[in-house]
Amino acid sequence: MIKVNQIDSVKEFAKVQANLVSGGVVYGIIEGDTMKWVQSSDSFSLDVFHVGKKFDSNSTSLTSIREKRVLSQKVPRSAYGVRLLITSIPIVDEQGKAVGAFSMAIPRLHPVAKAFGNFAPILAEMFSEGVFLCLTDLQKFQYVQSSKQFDIDSITIGDEFGSDFISKEVISTGKAKVEKIDAVKYGTPVMMLGYPLIDEDSNEIVGSFVIAMPKETEAELRNMSGNLTESITGISSAIEELAASASQIHNNEQELNNDISQITELSEEINKISSFIEDIANETKMLGLNAAIEAARAGQAGSGFGVVANQIRKLSEQAKSTVPKIKKLTDNIEEKVDGSSKKSKGSLASSQEQAAATEEITASIEEITTMSEKLSEIALKL
């Protein structure tokens, strides 16, 4: 209890301490049922606590005076618009009679609000892209903390948050929420996480805690993913066309190789015919020679037949001389065909390798396309 002659000292003490109390405080001296003196912190005041205010008989201060004991009471928001812890200390005169009370009203803060000033600056530096933290009561922003990399200038202490701000839904539902906000509102894409703050005594929602993070990297990732998907789709189409062309080239090379094989076979047939002509020429020469011998034996009567025999031998010689020319031509044909055949086989093998390589590339492109689609899905979930 405080004695009447100590009141001036208590007032001086209150003036010094008012701005040292974390969260703020309102001190007051009540005489009878009326507030006679008030001292508030710069950061916290209550308009309802003013000089001349009359207190109800059930109030903490009058109960403390009546019962002549120190009394503390948790006052709900409905009483003064803010959750308070009010402590009253009776003031007694020389006879020990309680004639008043020294009261102090301290805003009753959620543990997160109490610790905000300690943990928020540390947490703000833990995010490489920056982060913005704020804490609200049921209507207004009470604490804010920005980082060097990121700040939301439009959110300031004391301002009421709008119906579209994440805290509104978090407080009304009592559930945490994640919300993605495009660049129109804050100048950059933002992801917000809101959590309800629940009073440990009454189990009532008393405010919200919000973490806002810039998501420029996510937006870039999403754009890159979209561009990658579009590019890969175009490449995939081109590869499919190349694969079709490679397949057609392979078929053409196969047909060419078959045609060359047939030419080789025809050349071999020509060689056989040449050999046959040579045999006939040899036999014809022998027949001409025999005819000439018989004509000589016949004398004058066989002279005409001898002329024919000579012509037959000449024709045989001419036919026989043609065979090497044909043989040389067919040899040249075979040589050319053999060279073409080797090239055709090499081209055929290359076209087969190209077709196989194209199929592998197509498979790789499909795999990359799948990865790109997954990348898009990841980006959308961020």
Automatic annotation (TrEMBL):
Methyl-accepting transducer domain segment(s): 238-382
Q: Which segments of the protein form a coiled coil according to its record?
A: 239-269
Q: What is this protein called?
A: Methyl-accepting chemotaxis protein
User: Which ranges are annotated Low complexity under compositional bias?
Assistant: 346-356
Keyword presence, Nucleus: no
Query: InterPro entries from the xrefs?
Result: MCPsignal_dom
Which UniProt key words apply to this protein? Answer: Coiled coil, Transducer
PROSITE patterns, alphabetized: CHEMOTAXIS_TRANSDUC_2
Q: Give the region (Disordered) as residue ranges.
A: 336-356
Q: Which residues cross the membrane?
A: none
What PANTHER family has UniProt attached to this entry? Answer: LYSOZYME-LIKE PROTEIN-RELATED (PTHR32089:SF112), METHYL-ACCEPTING CHEMOTAXIS PROTEIN MCPB (PTHR32089)
